[in-house]
Amino acid sequence: MTDTSARQYVVNSLVERHAAVFEPVGGSTDIDLAVRTGDGQYVEVIVRESMAAEEPRSFTMRRFRPRPHLFILCIAPGPEAWLVPSTVFERFATGAPGEPEWALQFDAPQDEPLSERLSVYRERWALIANYGEYRSTLNDPLALRVRIAML
Fold it and tell me: 3-54 pLDDT, tens per residue?
């Protein structure tokens, strides 16, 4: 998948859920898309594709300051989308302090791969389309799982 097709996949998926999607004017390099959600709130989106074919669910980002309304959309082959809040990306990504990049590896060999721990963010387009419903629990995967179960 190319950057253009990954972005188009994201746009199509959000528009299907009645979100208004905007591309920044002036060639902003920080944000790929702005999304007005169903309740009128705005969310910023950065679209990232996997680092390499041999690591299809690993994503890198330049260091950034996490914000509550910023999502990193990690698009793996398939396509498979992970709608990760920026604070969650920062918390679970690897990278030594002072390094210019973070890496989030969903399939890293651990007792519990991140793909299982963060599965609540996989293909969960409502997190952006209905941002207001989930905002209070977005940063805690377990709390978010409970919130979704209650809806």
Answer: 668 889 999 999 999 999 998 887 666 899 999 987 889 999 999 998 777 7
pTM tops 0.85:
yes
Number of domains in the chain: 1
The token pair at 120 is 């609540």
pLDDT at 150 over 60: yes
Dist CA 145 CA 1 (whole Å): 29
Query: In angstroms, how far is the first alpha carbon of the chain from the final one?
Result: 33
E strands of 86-128, at which residues? 101-105
Q: What are the DSSP E strand ranges found in 28-69?
A: 33-36, 42-49, 58-62
List the domain range (segments joined by +) for residue 135.
3-150
Query: Which CATH number does the domain housing residue 125 bear?
Result: 3.40.1350.10
